[in-house]
Amino acid sequence: MANFYNVYPSRKRSLFGSLSTNTIFIILNVFCYTIFMILLYINSNFLDYIAIKPANILAGNYIWTFLTSMFMHGGFFHLFANMLSLFFIGSLVEKLLGHKRYIWFYLASGLLAGVFFVLSSLFFGGLETYAVGASGALFGLVGLLVLLTPNLPVYVMFIPIPIKMKYAGPGILFLLWMISIAGNVPIGNTAHLGGLIVGLAYGIYLKKKYKNKTKYISRHFN
User: Fold this and answer.
1) Which has fewest Cβ within 10 Å: 181, 193, 202, 206?
2) Active-site residue flag, 192
3) Catalytic residue at 99?
4) Using CA atoms, how far apart are residues 145 and 152, in angstroms rounded to an integer?
């Protein structure tokens, strides 16, 4: 655990030379989005092979969509908004966790957000609803920062003043939920909630196991 929470780590060579793991995730998202869009243009039936659909999962089909759906987006703006957020949020989380732990945490957040989305459909409906996007993983990162850097000032959407992370994280989730209800916009709110819960849970674990290091992180970004 020597490299854990090294706020200013030395540069390490990754799979693509000097690129950070977070940058590689962004490139993968853009690349997969492009490939998936081409496939869907050729045949729209490919959607079942890419997007997560609760009815499919509960029937034991297309299980791999827990992963592929994380790298597909509903349109260019969806992709742009998520990648812009990932650029800022993911860069910080990677510096805090280190690139190996960041990989596992990012993927676990996205996968468990998908599980939460599927299970919630059993109680709230939406078995035939498709879900795509990196938002579940993103909210996992946000949930972690809510606990590790609660007083970190961040800008949310078009609000011109910085808001502390401990308020911004839940606030973004609430705002998106209200937008989806008021405008009948198809937003994966339960996946977002699942990702946030994963991030909070991991944050609680880290704060208990590494009390001194997490306290230092919190003070550093106060």
Assistant:
1) 181
2) yes
3) no
4) 8
